[in-house]
Amino acid sequence: MVRSKKDTNPKGSFGLSITVEGPRVGKARVSVGEFAEILHRTQQALKRIGQVLYGECSIGKGRKKREIEDLCEIFLVDWKPGSAIAEVELAEPPAQLSLFGYIGEESLKAFIKGMETIQTEANPSLPVGYDGGVLQTCDSLGRVLERGIDSIKFEARNGIPLPSIAFDRRLRERIRGLLGKPIGQRQAEKIGRLEELNGHGGLTGRLWEADGTKWLCIFKPDHLELLPDIWLHRVKLVGEIVIEPGGERTLSVESILPLDGEIEEMTAAAEGFAFWTSLSLEELAEQQKVSPIVDLDEISALWPVDDDPDKLIDHILADRSAHKK
């Protein structure tokens, strides 16, 4: 049966009421930057859920990815006095798509129900409409909880029968716990230091595990905004692993979990020293927990076996010569 917009929601457009609470939130007052971040991440989550729900229709014939994203876009329509409460609505779906249902509405429902599943179930599985990218967006939404905001309450508007959800630190930790788990049978998790990021011909990087195992990591475009923050830091990556006959280890990354404890510890240690403080070589070594090299073979072992230093130098010289010409 084809239902009209009026039949589906007689009281008005589908939307959310978003209430922000915390020390940095006053009476009808919240930081523009934090509020913009909340709206951006919420919209990003809805769009990604829309892609997961209707992914088969986003390629080839039928609705394209851009159409799904447009229908999952949200618009600020009201700001209630008395507290920091914003009301947003989904984009109005065109009449010709009624045969296929309303992507934005289904995405919003999956967003709320998925949050409830993660919040209430003891050992939640991946909710309907969620994948690694959606979890990553929800984790990024939680960054505002580190900056004077205690919770973000999501409540469906216009009488939609959905539970209200308070996105707080506890819920974020449950999301991060799910984000750090392999989802498919062919997936695995790897922990190490992320180095050698490369954006030529795709997003790739190198992950070094504690035992020296090296992985070529292939990232998705959705990971682009997170990569600069985790470069040269310790992270947990979840994805599908492939070990080539020649020994090359590849990890197609689905989700990224920054191990913030180590990052904060390194930052705190760095802040303990004044910028202009001069330290001896011995003091620097002690501060950075490094020991002297006694065997040159240890250094040479760090250089990739399949890389030729002479070819690298030749490439640099040729490139400089071409620029001069």
Give a written overview of the molecule.
Strand 7 and strand 8 (214-218) form a beta hairpin. The chain starts with a helix and ends with a helix. It has three domains: 5-179, no CATH class; 187-261, Beta Barrel (OB fold (Dihydrolipoamide Acetyltransferase, E2P)), CATH 2.40.50.140; 280-324, no CATH class. The chain has 325 residues and is an alpha+beta fold. The chain contains eleven helices and ten strands. 36% of the residues lie in helices and 22% in strands.
Q: Topology of this structure?
A:
Blueprint: H1 5-8, E1 15-21, H2 32-53, H3 65-71, E2 74-80, E3 85-90, H4 103-120, H5 132-141, E4 151-156, E5 165-168, H6 169-179, E6 187-198, E7 204-208, E8 214-218, H7 227-230, E9 234-243, E10 249-258, H8 260-271, H9 281-287, H10 296-300, H11 309-324
Parallel strand pairs: 8-10
Antiparallel strand pairs: 1-3, 1-4, 2-3, 4-5, 6-7, 6-9, 7-8, 9-10
Q: Percent range for helical residues? A: 25-40%
Number of domains: 3
Count of helix runs: 11
Q: Radius of gyration in whole Å, from Cα?
A: 24 Å
Q: What is the structure about, briefly put?
A:
36% of the residues lie in helices and 22% in strands. It is an alpha+beta fold and 325 residues long. Strand 9 (234-243) and strand 10 (249-258) form a beta hairpin.
Throw out a few tags for this protein.
alpha+beta, OB fold (Dihydrolipoamide Acetyltransferase, E2P), five-stranded mixed β-barrel
